[in-house]
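Lab meeting notes turned into a lecture example. A postdoc, R.K., suggested we walk through two folding results consecutively so the class can see how the record format repeats. The first protein's sequence and C-alpha cells come next.
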Amino acid sequence: MYATVAFTLTILGIFSIIELIKGNQKFSLLKYYMLSVIILLTISSGLDYLDLTNHPNPYYKPITRFFGTVVFVNIFCIIVLKKIPKSVYIIEGFLLAFFLITIFNGFEFPRLINNQLQQQYYTYQFVFFFLSSLFFLSLIVYTFIKLVSNTSNKNLYDINIRNWTFGLYFAIFLLLLTLLLVYVLYLNGIKTGYDDSIIILFIFRFYILLFILFRPKFLDDDKYARSFNQLIARNKVVTFNNFEFLFYSNNYYLNPEANIDDLALKLNATKNEVADFLKNEIDENFIELLNKNRVEYLKELLKAKKYESFTIEALSEMSGFNNRRSMYNSFNKYVGVTPTEFIISVK
C-alpha cells in the first residue's frame, strides 16, 4: 500500500511541476521556491517508491528532507518578511555543514515503525537534530507572529497572500500535533500497527501539493511576477523604511519639483527600482501617490481655515502643486468636490 501511495504522489508531483511552469510566464522568487518544494517532494516520493519496492537508495531520506525543510521555511521568510535575512542564510549554512558531517556518519531522521525507534544516535547527531529543529520551528513561529501582528499593509495582494499563507501554518500545526501524539504513544508503549512516520509524511506531502496547486491565481499574473535577478536586486535596494522616511517624514511630496528620477537618486536606486517598489509595496504609481498626499495636505490646511489668511493658489503651492489646474483636477479626483465646495462643507 505504501508503495502505491508513494507512486501516486510522484505522478501528482510531476503534473504539479508541469502546471507550475506551463505558459513560460515570469517567475517570482516565491514561485521559484514553490517549484523547488514540489521538485524535492516529487524526488522524495519517487525514491520512497523505489525503496518500498526493494530498490533502496542510501541517504536520500535525510538529504531530501533537510533541503526540503530549508526551502519550505524560506518560503515563510519571503511571504512575511519580503526577503530572506542574511542571518537566516548564515545559520542555514552552518546547519548544512553540520548536516554533511552527520550524513557521512550514517545519520537518519527519527523514524518510528510499530512504535519502535529505528535509529540509534550519537551525541553530535542528537545535537544536530535538536539545533536544526529548534531553528526551523523558531523561524516558523517568528514569521507567524509577524504575519498576524502586521495589519498596517492594505495592499490587496499582500492581504490575499497572508490569508493563503495561513493554510501552510495550519498544515504545520497538524503535522506537529500528530507527531506529538505519535511520540506520546511511543513513550507509553502503545503500538499503532503501522509505519507511523511515513504515513504522516505522505499526508503532509499531499497537503502541500494541493496547497500549491490551489494557490491564488494572481501569483501567475505578470503584474506581480519578476525575474529572479530583479527580485534579488529589489530586495537589496529600496526598503519601506527608507522610502517612508524620505517621502513622508521629510514631506518630500510637498516639493513642487518632486519627480521619480530625483526620488530614485535620493534613495540611491534606479527609476525602475523605485517604480517596482511603489507598484508592489504600495500598489500605486508615483504621480498618483504624489497627488493623493498633496490633496490630503491641502485638505488639512483648509480644515484649519488657512484660507482666511492665504489664497487658494497660495495654499496650493504650499501643498506642492505647480499650477491651479493640476490642483483642481487632483482635488476633484480624490475628494469629489472643488476646494471651494470643500470649504463650505467644513464650515
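The second example is placed directly after the first for contrast:
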Amino acid sequence: MKLMKEFYFYTEGLTVGYHGVPLIKNIEVRLRKGEILTLIGPNGAGKTTILKSIIRQLAPIGGVAWLDGEEIGKLSGNAFSKKVSVVLTDRVKPELMTCEDVVATGRYPYTGRFGLLSKEDWELVYEAMELVHVEELRERDFTKISDGQKQRVMLARAICQEPDIIVLDEPTSFLDIRYKLEFLSILQRMSRSRNLSVIMSLHELELAGRISDKLLCVKGDKVDRFGTPEEVFTPGYISGLYGMTAGSYDEGTGNLELEPVRKEPEIFVIAGNGTGTAFFRRLQREGIPFAAGILWENDLDCPAARALASEVVLERAFSPIGAEKIERAEELIDSCRRVLCTLSLEETGEWARKLRELVVYAEKKGKLGERQDHG
C-alpha cells in the first residue's frame, strides 16, 4: 500500500524473458509521476525485452508491474491505452496514411466505437504536431519520410494520446544531433509541465546522464544498478557495465575517449583551462604519444589528459605547484623532442608564472614549438 501511494509505476520481482525462459530476473523499479527513467546497458542485455513486458507485448514470466495502483496485466486495453503511450516505429506499418493520419490514431482510445474524431480531437492532433515540429509533414505519406521524421511523428502521436507514461525504445537512434536534443528537450519539458512519466532506453550515455531522474542498468541476467545518475555514474562503473576493452569513459564529464598511443611521449603539452583537450585528441588521431602538464586535478583538460596522455603531471586542486612537479615536467621536456603550449600565459599569479618558467626552460632547450590554439 505504501508503494502505491508513493510511486505511480513500480515493479515487484518482475522477471522477463521468452518462451518461459527467464532473461532478466527480479527487476525492481520505482517511478513517480513526472520522472524520467532510462534503461542503459550493452546491446542484447534485455532492455527492449523489459520495455516490451511493460507495454504488454510480452507477458512477464514472474512478478508484477503496477501502474497507478493497478496491476498492468489486469487493465483493459482501452484503460491501458489512456495511461500508456508507446513510441516504437516498427509497431506501425501504415498503408496509404499521411503523417496527420498516423498522429490522429493517438486519439482512438477516446473516440468511442465508431472511431470518429471530434473538433477537440483534431485540435490536439495539430497541437502535438506543432510541438514536435512536424506540421510541415501533415500531408506527406508516412512510409516515404525519413526514419528520423517518422520518430518525431510517432512522438506526436504519443503526445496527443494524453498518456501518463510514454515508453520509448532507442528514440534518438535515427536523429541527427539537432533533433536528438530537440526530441529529448520536448520529453523533459513535458515531464515537468504535464507531470508525464517517461520510460526509455538510450545508447547515448551522456544524454542519459543529463535527462534522467533514474537509471536502470542491465547486465547479465539482472539489474546491476538502479538509482540517480549521481548514484550510477561512479568512477569506473560504465567500463565494467559495458565490458570495455579499449578506450575509456569518464563518468564525471561524459567524455568518451579512444585508446591512447602507448609509447614514450614525443611531445610535452603545456595546457590548462580546457585549452588542451582538442589538441590532445588531434595528437591521438595522428598517432603521436605525448605527455601533459602541469594541471590541477580538477582542470577541464584533466579527463582527456588522463585518458590520452602517456603521462600527466598533476597537482592538487588550487594548490601551488610543488618543486617536485616542476622537476618532473622538466624531465619530460628533456626527453621529448618538442614542447607545445595551448595556454595564453599573460595572466598574473603564481601558477601562470611557474608555467611561463616551463616555457622559458623549453625555449632554452631549443624545443619550444609555435603556440597551439585549442580547437
